[in-house]
Amino acid sequence: MAVVENLPSPSTERPIGFGRLKRKEDLRFIRGEGNYLDDIKLPGMVYGAILRSPYAHARILSIDTSAALAHPNVAAVVTAKDLEMLGLAWMPTISYDTQAVLAGDKVRFQGQEVAFVIATDEYSANDALALIDVDYDPLPAVVNARKALDADAPLIRDDKSGQRDNLASPTWEAGDEAAADRAFAEADTVVTRDIIYPRCHPAPLETCGIIADFNPNTGQLDIYNGNQAPHAHRTVYAHVAGLAEHMIRIRTGDIGGGFGNKVPVYPGYVCAIAGSIVAGAPVKWVENRTENLTSTGFARDYIMRGEMCSKDGKITGLRVDAIADHGAFDSTAQPTKFPAGFFHIVCGSYDLEASHVKVKAVYTNKAPGGVAYRCSFRITEAVYLVERMADALALEMKVDPIDLRMRSFIAPEQFPYVTTTGWTYDSGDYGKTMDVAKQIAGYDELRREQAEKRARGELMGIGVSFFTEGVGAGPRKHMDILGLSMNDGADLRVHPSGKAVVSISAQTQGQGHETTFAQIVAEELGIPPEDVEVRHGDTDKSPYGLGTYGSRSTPVSGGAVAIVSRKVRDKARLIAATMLETRPEDLAWEKGRWYVKGDPEQGAMIEDIAERAYSGEPMPAEMEGGLDAQVIYDPPNLTYPYGAYIAVVDVDPDTAHVKVRRFIAVDDCGVRINPMVVDGQIHGGLAEGIGIALMELISFDEEGNCLNSSLMDYLIPTALECPDFELGETVTPCPHHPLGAKGVGESPTVGSPPAIVNAVIDALHESHGVDHIDMPCTPARVWAAMQGRPEPPQ
Amino acid sequence: MDVSIAINGEQVSREIEPRQLLVHFIRETPGLTGTHWGCDTSNCGACVVQMDGRPVKSCTILAAMCEGHEIRTVEALEVDGRLDPIQQGFHERHALQCGFCTPGMLMTARALLDENPDPTDVEIRTAISGAICRCTGYKNIVSAVRWAADHEAAAKQEA
Questions:
Q1: Do residue B99 and residue A710 have CB atoms under 8 angstroms apart?
Q2: Do the chains contact at B98 and A257, CB–CB below 8 Å?
Q3: CATH 1.10.150.120 fits B85-158, yes or no
Q4: With CB atoms counted within 10 Å of each terminal CB, which end of chain A scores lower, N or C?
Q5: What is the CATH number of domain A379-471+638-786?
């Protein structure tokens, strides 16, 4: 029988502040008492369902809703015509495009929203969908991004005046083309690869949904909606629906996973709001799994050509030409000035001489999105490309992939380091992190084992990746979304008894904010984390800010909480000086109290200071009572977490099944507030990375039919596909973050796919001559590659 | 049609549409919203409850089929203010993040331990492979089930 592993004893933990604190939020979830969107039932609530297009591209000739309206339980049927009267037929996307809320002229992807039925119950609403008669005139569809640019390709966005092709935005460039060309001209070795990062989907276990409750008497709109950016959503609704922003309240409740899927405003949300205005009752709409996979925020879909070169054994240059497939509407989410997101971080962790990146974006008859799935605004695609290219180059040079990376890394003394595409990396010691990963993996021993297995005809692969991310968007001088600066607020009140409430503009979808943000206050004020309540996910009860995505909670919101705590601490110092009848500069801080320098017995605890702040006793001159502060934090830069990942895979020679036997992840995310939560984030991201590398794919046939529209076809890793992850860490504090912390949530999903694909190629190169394979590495696709006929994923 | 189903030891009776799924019956009639819905196709396991002690996916069973059967949901795990060891294990080992899969995972794992009090890691992984967790990568769930198994064994030895 296994022995119970010893839990860390209290003495090894920091009782107040940072450390492995078990989560406050767990108790409601393990009791089945979470409060998710679909758990909410309002009096008089009715239910919405959406009729969706069966065609990828078709003109709508007519819509007959009379039979649906005759259904005894149907309250209303909303179509584009009705929305036009409300001015809601089209809505702006996050990328300054427009998207049809309900299709009026034509449908542009399979699954597009055509009509919204409101009925007394969910079953009736769905029954009524079958009673709506839509007459379509099918048009040729284009699903391949390369073909979308052909001269004879059908025009998808004929709604946009002046649009004559399927180009969604002008070509966007970064780096220096001439310098890159020089680096390539002077190189010893050059490799080229066509690399596809296929379309996949975040598929959180809880699908998207909303309850909209408009009160015509007061003009108040109450929205219950598990989204990742409630304040930004409220501003968007105010603009789109012409409602007063202060009369809109959004409550997220508990959110059953987001991963980027719950960042955008979806047509279903606008329909529910319009429905509530029309029906005069609260309207609930919850998408089913097929709707989730086929219509809301997909991820990736980047078609890339990479070229990388080396000179004297070191990586020197990179050129990338990419096509971004946005689907029918450009609703990708990224800071406004970065139409390809942060893809130009593609120069990675290497001290290049030059690089040049070109990205153009196209429309296709596929669902819109491209925002999501733990991607840090396209850093997934960038890291995948550069780390696949580094391995391709190592293969060509016949050198060990770790050795090539080690020789090419930016050296610790080069930080702060400005990359050839303009990023300023703040800190790093890449070689050290790579070494830790090598040690945990037992890399040399693994190579010996591989050689022995190869001699026996077994297919074992070892794959490496090293990533640098830029997360925590972002500084307002560089970054906004729809004109909203990417800052976050925090509001901290210490009550007379010394118990505190901190309100934050980010909210959790599982990241553990209620625990870790309490720990930040605890660390800074020296009060126990259980005495700090974290309020979030309610626009009426939290300060303005842009929310939780792009690994930005700790970098931005965490910075806000640290700074607001310090403001309170500074105020406490002045009050303590009055209490102790001394000057503030004569006081020193230790966790939880201000004391007189040279006389440590004389001091005041935070709770005593709090009591004083609300009492009738005198305060410092001209100071208001109370012990509280608020802040909107504008980060000076992004944070740059990095990591070294090693995957060990076995490929079955008879079935081509890939088994990830081991996965080693060494992350440097700076100072760790709650290492238990950080480890959990990494485990989860690795599982999703394994899914993307091996099984998760959204694909389409020539007519634009989605072939992966349920979890029968969209495969998500289970416990059997995931190995027992082996983690390590190095800690290089972020020099500008108030806590020295960096973001981490997306690192594992960014870093793991290239490690796994590199491992699969490593397993198959010598025996089968495979030097590239596109994801997902399903048995069929790996088998085809082993036979010398690799297939693109689309 | 009228159905009467024993849920967590209480008889719940109601007139329903014959097509109503058990997951909807559980969530709507006694209002036990701990059991979640996630996929429609029996793939995700968010809706797992126990039927006569065995884990079943309540999105794939009609409420009408449950007449005369005992249904047990996550709400029944805690007894007299004492968490079930499997609940405690999930908390101790950080085996949940967003919490949406947790009720189904707990009921699946509880059924495993009732049948096999000392499972190997492979047996745990196999038992929970019908349930998807998008957040944890399963490592800590395996560890949590192990924690519960060890604590139940220790409690038995003391008794």
A1: no
A2: yes
A3: yes
A4: N
A5: 3.30.365.10
